[in-house]
Design goal:
With about 140 residues, this protein is α+β, with helices and mostly antiparallel strands. Helices cover about 35% and strands about 20% of the residues. The chain has helices at about 1-10, 25-35, 65-75, 95-115, and strands spanning about 10-15, 45, 60-65, 90-95, 120-125, 130-135. The protein has a four-stranded antiparallel β-sheet, covered by helices on one side. Strands 5-6 form a two-stranded antiparallel sheet. The relative contact order is 0.17. Mean pLDDT is about 80; it is low at about 1-10.
């Protein structure tokens, strides 16, 4: 069962915050996001889940031909923040159910730490919460 779950996750990742449009051409929008960071890739994209309300935005599951390409893309996806059209998009790799539980716990702990110590900058790296001092503005 674990092999199957990992096999399903190979070559996939998610876009969160990509606005939904009527009659959208999702594959083209995902390709446009890739091109804006200098990547020319072919991918299959689909919305995941049910539309809960008119304003809700469902995540987009993107499938590429290999996990190596996904790793390369995830390394360069940070530059999407500099593209106005995609600045609010968050991209992350597909996770197994166990990894999702761990990540959810880390995010909850991260939020608690941010609230307790607002002068510090907290982030998740390699499955651990790390901290640095905020730069004075």
């Amino acid at each position: 069962k674990q092999w199957y779950q990992r096999r399903v996750a190979v070559g996939t990742f998610f876009f969160f915050g990509l606005n939904e449009e009527d009659n959208e051409k999702l594959n083209e929008r995902v390709a446009e996001a890739f091109e804006s960071i200098g990547q020319k890739l072919r991918a299959e994209a689909c919305r995941v889940g049910r539309k809960k309300s008119k304003d809700s935005v469902r995540p987009v599951k993107v499938k590429l031909s290999s996990s190596l390409i996904v790793d390369q893309l995830l390394a360069s996806v940070k530059s999407l923040r500099n593209v106005t059209k995609f600045c609010s998009v968050f991209v992350c790799s597909d996770r197994s159910p166990e990894q999702r539980v761990i990540q959810k716990g880390l995010v909850k702990e991260l939020k608690e730490k941010v609230e307790a110590e607002p002068d510090k900058r907290f982030f998740i790296r390699s499955g651990k919460i790390e901290c640095s001092m905020r730069a004075n503005k």
